[in-house]
């Protein structure tokens, strides 16, 4: 089997995936890793603002309820990041606000687009893999689609949104 006979991911729009072959459309995956890191930094700031607002509300509610509602804070601190990522990744634009800012989009390799279930799997695996931050990035540097470990398990890939549109229209 020669190098030209290797199997390639050549999925066209409407054939179950919006992710083109990285060998024929390298622009779709170019620069994704650093932009992903920057997008996550933006998302962290947004999530921190949401958590600060929720904390203020729970502290006020806890004071009014003589401390009965104070335990809600722990639940909110866990739910806010999860809900933020799941609702935006599974939503119509398939990107968090940070990803949108840097022109990225989450694409499913198993469906026409990621749904809320796939976004949930992706998000939970992402947060579980945060303890191995270096491993997440190392995996992405050594594959042509720049997929992270949680992308592999969830059946997703993050792509350059504009380059993807151009690749799918050609």
Structural description of this entry:
With 170 residues, this protein is mainly alpha-helical. Helix content is 55%, strand content 6%. It is built from seven helices and two strands. Strands 1-2 form a two-stranded antiparallel sheet. Helix 1 runs antiparallel to helix 2 and helix 2 packs across helix 4. The two termini are 29 Å apart. The N terminus is likely disordered.
In short:
The chain is mainly α and 170 residues long.
Question: What is this structure's SSE topology?
Answer:
Elements: H1 32-64, H2 72-89, H3 97-101, E1 104-108, H4 116-129, H5 133-141, H6 149-154, E2 156-160, H7 161-169
Antiparallel strand pairs: 1-2
The shape, in one word, is elongated
**Estimated helix fraction:** 55-70%
Number of strands: 2
Strand order of the largest sheet: 1-2
Strand content: 5-15%
Based on the model shown, name its key terms:
about 170 residues; two-stranded antiparallel ribbon; 7 helices; mainly alpha; elongated
